[in-house]
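Most newcomers find our protein records easier to grasp once they have seen one. To make this concrete, we reproduce a full record directly below:

===
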Amino acid sequence: MSFVRLAEVWRGPAVESVHHGVAVIADAAGRIVQAWGDPGFVTFPRSSLKPFQAIGLVESGAADALGLSPEHLALACASHRAEDFQVSLVRDWLGRMELTEAALVCGPDLPRDARDQAALLRGGGGPARVFHNCSGKHCGFLAVARRLGAPTAGYDDPAHPAQRLYLDALSELLGRDAAGLARGVDGCGLPAFALSVGDMARAAARHAAAAVAAEARRDAIRRIHAAMRAHPDHLSGRDQPTSRIIRATQGRVLVKGGAEGFVLALVPDRGLGIAVKIADGASRAKMGVLAALLGRLGLLDAAEAEALCGAVEPPVLDSNGRAVGRIAITLPPTA
């Protein structure tokens, strides 16, 4: 079987739903430290690859040429909720490049929070590309295109120099030519690669350890780590599960979620990578599974891991906001 039972959803006294999936811990030498389910299961990590896509932004000199701050670098790794500070950063970034949001390939969207949506619509606004959760990443590719002297139009083409620089970094961290990976199109319009959960954990471990040949690339990776550690709210939104995990581990663990039930974690001081895929594509349960894994690794004690699971997987509520159920993480004790 490819998948193991990772979580249960309880309503009162009975299990209502079950989430199966794959979880893998790997080290920078390419060894699988522990696995639940089949590490060879191939899927799309989606936005979990953003810390890899951001490498070229720093390595190329584009970030420094534009005077970008660590906040901008964190936003390049983000799947943001279009909160006020995040939208301001996107607009600032476009302004530094003397571009309008029309240059962004990602489609128009609304902020994620219902209150932000209501305020926008009351003010006569509507969907815009700057509100798209991937707009920071897209600004990063536009900045690289400018730095490389390439056209900004067509930066979504796999043959574009900005995409080729990303492919080169991904290949080094993967340990083989990423051009051979199956490729689709992400929700934001950029190329999306499919790879095994095990390979994603290995690549994450090498990212965590900055295990690359060139000093410029090592420096770029370390700067990305520092930005994610210093600005965890930028990666998703204020006080979201991503930032709760980063803060609970005091920045020892860096987290990047992806669509369809994927989440990636980097542990720089131990050179470890963690990849989790919920088989049914649900976002529910993946952060709780990750929190449980951090307890297994000794990055949190048992009580801290249990508390973090509760903080990132809230109870099941009825329409009056009363707790009527819970999410139980059922990660088996051993692989």
Summary: The mean pLDDT is 97. The domain at 4-329 is CATH 3.40.710 (Beta-lactamase). The first helix runs from residue 50 to 53.
